[in-house]
Design a protein that fits this description.
Chain lengths: 304, 506
């Protein structure tokens, strides 16, 4: 056992990278759930985004185009969910579960020729000034651009929900869809847009795994990240700030336990592997106090 | 003030199997308070939804100030100066008053400006309201003010009010009426939907009466008696429930300092409720919704457990027993929400009969259901309570509200409980069916049951109860004999203002 092998600066630096896929998927699902829709297909949309992003990036040679393709792929899959639940009024829980299974199968099919290839990586970039700050620069400002895109999306979602009129309407639709309909808001159209945003974000999260974190394509590579994203949304009380905390906590404990494993820490590996899940849930449960959006998961039918 | 504001001409709207509006024509003048009267299912809601742009008519046209008026959606209707206050409030519980109001506006100013306007309008019309409070914490009267102010900020020419007083105390009704009269004097027309005829006589200038989707008459409510209007609505003579003399016996159900914390965030805690319901007696519990009615019903039914001694049935402590054990002992409870709480909508009437009748009517033996007996029981309910349904196999949700209510109340009464607790027994039920339900409650009491009726309809409580008490913020006033209570006294009881004298003589 050698704790000196663990470098605290590197540990904190890799925390942000480890948290980004879950953060991206979770912030999308947060918007979907604030609009009153429960999409349990996050895992399926993530893995579809991972494979779409990988294919586009490999063929075009540009990671940026890869991420765009991932967003489109995730959003397209979510449209399927939206059509089924919003227009054909299918059960959201069952449809979401089916979407995950479908996404896992579809991605395995699409990714057949891409196993074992390496993805093109972001060119080295260096944030001037900020990146040169000792210690802090290394921890916070020396990552790939997608880390900051993720943070930007979280901030934008927070501002959108808190300050904008469109955000107010979206929350109203999620809170009481019958009342929103009676006031003349287009419940289904608003929800479709939220669902597509959620799909695109999940796709970005998946592509971050296949293009940056791993960076390779393997079947089932999301390995439950979508489910963690779903759980974080609930335990964060549907608030973007807490969601960020939850995702970083999860990322942090994940990185820590990997480091502990590598250092040969004297507890069974299985306990270490469960620790991120346990720590995230315990902390967020202790903090939780809010309530779910009033219409979450309920089927909206205009004539009732 | 005599110009026609809105004219309806031959409006017809049919849904599969039912004509909701059949060639409806009438006109509303500027500044007029116009009543729209009718039973449930007479087509009032469809008609106002048409005016508000939520429903498109199959035939017929509307003119607003002489120009053709065909609102595509509620926004268009609002832009033309039509405002609507809904019967079931269209509010968002988790949001603030100001946010709720912003949602009802086309181009809302910033929140701070809305807050200022709300304060201004609420002062002008005597509707006190704090714009920064969360709507879920407001009383029913305050929630209605949110809706009214939301409409008033749009400066409407026509304000539609759908059953606005069903959730208000008499004092709150008086405040509302003053506001409406003031609006009317300023030239705003009001379309007022209600089935409370005395209110319409006190408030409205003109009344249009609908029956089965068609206009069956117009009258001046100031000179037409309530009874005449009721008979126009029903199309038949009205049966008034008959009280028979009955002996009041010993106490059967006793609540002894019944207290319970609020079961959820927007709930009401119960505080030291004391009450005795006696054999042959009907106890009426009045109060505005959200003052602990649901919690009291839950405590009585056993959905919410309390300390054993807080509820006693024939001196036996039952506060900690689950619902079925209480039913076995003879305590039946019919909750308010008929679809989803008192009855399972997707299940047939037979299955619904089984749900509460299993133990008292021995509809099961050794874990197996006796479907023959269940069916007989369901058919008995349908026959005795005049439930209009194609068959007992029909799903509960396919029945109209009034018919399902008759079924739900009838199901409990036919089990011959020793104590029956009903919450809002005639809510949303038309006059004829309501009279039948009230009669059945009176008959049950005459047979020696103790009956507790929780209702927001004070006329109903005065008609059938022997003792009356009011529920306010989870506290129950001391019971008083119902005979001889004046509206003012009841209003004070509902408002929670009781003199010590009242407490002392209880």
């Amino acid at each position: 056992m050698d704790f000196s092998a663990i470098n605290p600066v590197l540990l904190l630096a890799s925390l942000m990278v480890a948290a980004t896929p879950i953060l991206l998927a979770a912030i999308g699902e947060l918007v979907v759930e604030r609009a009153g829709v429960l999409n349990l297909g996050v895992e399926g949309m993530m893995i579809t985004g991972a494979v779409c992003g990988f294919i586009v990036a490999v063929n075009s040679g540009s990671p940026w185009l890869g991420f765009a393709g991932a967003a489109v792929g995730g959003a397209l899959l979510s449209v399927l969910f939206g059509l089924l639940t919003q227009y054909l009024l299918s059960n959201q829980v069952a449809t979401g579960l089916a979407l995950t299974l479908f996404g896992l199968g579809l991605s395995a099919l699409m990714g057949q020729g891409y196993i074992g290839i390496k993805a093109p990586s972001f060119p080295d970039w260096h944030i001037p000034l900020l990146g040169d700050i000792p210690v802090i620069g290394e921890i916070v400002f020396q990552h790939d651009p997608m880390v900051y895109v993720g943070l930007l999306i979280v901030t934008a979602v927070w501002a959108f929900l808190t300050y904008s009129r469109a955000g107010l309407i979206l929350r109203a639709v999620g809170e009481n869809h019958d009342a929103a309909h009676a006031l003349g808001y287009k419940v289904r159209a608003i929800r479709m847009m939220a669902i597509m945003f959620g799909g695109a974000c999940a796709g970005l999260g998946g592509a971050y795994l296949s293009l940056v974190r791993v960076p390779q394509w393997t079947e089932g590579m999301t390995a439950g990240a979508g489910w963690i994203a779903l759980a974080i949304v609930v335990f964060a009380n549907w608030k973007p700030g807490r969601l960020l905390l939850g995702a970083y906590l999860f990322g942090g404990v994940t990185v820590l336990q990997l480091n502990l494993q590598a250092a040969g820490f004297a507890i069974p590996v299985e306990y270490l592997s469960m620790s991120p899940y346990l720590a995230t849930i315990v902390v967020l449960v202790i903090m939780s106090s809010g309530r779910a959006p009033g219409s979450l998961g309920r089927i909206f039918h205009a004539s009732r | 003030m005599t110009n026609t504001l809105l004219a309806l001409n031959g409006l017809t709207k049919a849904y599969p199997g039912v004509v909701a509006n059949d060639d409806v024509s009438f006109a509303i003048k500027e500044g007029e308070i116009h009543a729209l009267l009718g039973e449930n299912g007479a087509g009032k809601s469809t008609l106002v939804k048409t005016i508000y742009g939520l429903v498109k008519p199959d035939r017929g046209e509307m003119t607003l100030k002489g120009a053709a008026f065909t609102p595509a959606d509620p926004r268009a209707a609002r832009a033309s100066g039509i405002g609507m206050v809904f019967q079931h409030f269209s509010l968002f519980d988790a949001m603030t008053v100001a946010e709720n109001i912003a949602l009802g506006m086309e181009a809302p100013p910033p929140q701070r400006e809305i807050a200022r306007q709300v304060r201004e309008v609420s002062e002008k019309y005597g509707l006190p309201l704090d714009p920064l409070r969360i709507v879920g914490d407001l009383s029913a009267g305050e929630r209605q003010r949110v809706e009214i102010i939301r409409c008033l900020l749009q400066d409407p020419k026509l304000l539609i009010m759908d059953e606005p007083t069903s959730v208000l105390t008499p004092q709150e009704v008086e405040v509302l009426f003053q506001t409406l009269r003031k609006l009317s004097a300023e030239g705003t027309a009001i379309l007022y939907i209600s089935h409370k005829l005395e209110e319409i006589r006190a408030l409205c200038d003109q009344a249009t009466i609908l029956r089965l989707g068609a206009v069956v008459g117009e009258c001046d409510p100031k000179v037409t008696s309530a009874r005449e209007m009721a008979e126009m609505m029903v199309g038949a003579k009205l049966q008034v429930p008959q009280r028979s003399d009955r002996a009041v016996g010993r106490g059967l159900l006793q609540l002894d300092n019944l207290s319970a914390p609020a079961p959820h965030q927007f709930g009401t805690p119960l505080r030291e409720i004391r009450l005795t319901a006696r054999i042959g007696e009907i106890t009426g519990i009045g109060g505005v919704a959200g003052n602990g009615q649901d919690e009291l019903v839950a405590a009585l039914s056993g959905e919410m457990r309390v300390a054993a001694g807080m509820i006693k049935l024939a001196d036996q402590p039952i506060g900690n027993l689950p619902p079925n054990a209480r039913r076995k002992l003879g305590l039946s409870v019919a909750p308010e929400e008929r679809n989803g709480h008192a009855a399972a909508g997707e299940m047939s009437l037979i299955e619904n009969a089984l749900l509460t009748g299993r133990v008292p009517k021995s509809l099961a033996s050794r874990g197996f259901l006796r479907w023959g007996r269940v069916k007989d029981f369901a058919q008995a309910i349908v026959a005795d309570f005049d439930v209009r349904t194609p068959s007992v196999e029909s799903a509960a949700a396919s029945l109209s509200g009034g018919n399902l209510q008759k079924f739900v109340v009838g199901r409990e009464i036919l089990q011959e409980p020793k104590v029956l607790v009903v919450n809002q027994p005639t809510w949303g039920v038309d006059a004829a069916a309501a009279a039948a339900i009230r009669q059945a409650l009176l008959d049950l009491a005459a047979k020696g049951a103790a009956v507790v009726v929780i209702s927001q309809d004070l006329d109903e409580l005065m008609e059938i109860s022997d003792q009356f008490c009011a529920l306010n913020a989870g506290q129950l006033s001391a019971p008083r004999p119902a005979a001889g209570l004046t509206v003012d006294e009841i209003g004070l009881m509902l408002g929670g203002a009781q003199s010590d004298a009242v407490r002392a003589d209880a």
